[in-house]
Amino acid sequence: MGKTGRSYGWLIALIVVVLFVILFFAFFGFILSLLFQSDTVGIGNIAVIPVSGIIVTEAEESVFTSSGYAVSSRITEKIEKANKDRSIRAIIVEINSPGGSPVGSDEIAVAIEKSEKPVVALIREIGASGGYWVAAPADVIVAHRNSLVGSIGVIASYVEFPDLLTRFNATYNRLVAGKYKDAGTPYKEMTKEEEMLFQKLLDELYEDFINHVATYRKLDHDYVKELATGWVYTGREAKELRLIDELGGREKAIEIIEHDLNITASIVEYKTQASFLDILAGTTQNSAYQMGRGVGDSLTTQTQQGIKVIA
After folding, report:
1. What is the dihedral of CA 141, 145, 146, 150, to 10 degrees?
2. Could you name the CATH architecture of 38-310?
């Protein structure tokens, strides 16, 4: 009986070891696939670079999950890579984004503006706020007739509940160094002076957005300001309003490039996945966002405060 027990013990131990070895090599193979997977698909002369999801400068990811963000640093790297590749004749930036970080949006826009090769911005379902900010510097903007385009505007929203604290006999003990350090906290009513300061920030970003569109779309400042209500337009309306150039999808973008460069286009898909080190390291940035309302909440002064500024 004792010998039989010992025999089964060795068998169980062997099974455990085998399973461990199998799992180890499976995980090791998965890691290698992340390390060495190609960031391009296909061989051609037109680079397609996606800007999909909420635009951020960084994103939190793990080995098993994706952030679903359009990370500006990775996208600008793809644009620079396409510019250095002699086989690439033009770039299609394929946008499907409701916006996000004003810094991230501008980083991508600057990379497009500096591109030595023609850039066509293709708006699929939505190119609103930061998504439209990205599209504006492109040589040509193409959008589906039913896509959502624009949302030029800024909003600040916050929640106050000082009366709720009073109701539950709670107290907000204000300890700050700097009189505006807790401006926007939900634990007290915002003063008129604080409201004016936030409005000044909003107005500055709003004016910057208008100037950005007016400059790159070659439109009059006052005309853009009339359009800058914060609302979105369909692709058809956007074309009538001169916010885009053509209606269509990827085929239309390719057609434009072929005509302008007198070439036969073939597509190279530029992926924008995280590197292995990015996935391991991750970040702690969180982005609060409302669709179609804007560029982002980077003007939020403190993470513990309730105010959210969204352009």
Report:
1. 30
2. Alpha-Beta Complex (3.90)
Report the C-alpha gap between 129 and 138 in whole angstroms: 15
Q: Which of 97, 129, 151, 298 is catalytic?
A: 129
CA distances from 15 to 4, 22, 27, 28, 153 (A): 17, 11, 18, 20, 63
66 is catalytic: no
275 is catalytic: no
pLDDT digits (tens, 9 = 90+) for 234-265: 999 999 999 999 999 999 999 999 999 999 98
Encode pLDDT of 146-191 as tens digits. 999 998 876 655 555 556 556 656 665 656 676 666 676 666 667 7
Active-site entry in 33, 66, 87, 181: 181
Domain residue ranges in the chain: 38-310
Q: Where are the beta strands (DSSP E) in 98-196?
A: 119-128, 140-143, 148-150, 155-157
pTM over 0.85: no
| Burial class for 2, CB neighbours closer than 10 Å (0-12, 13-18, 19+) | exposed
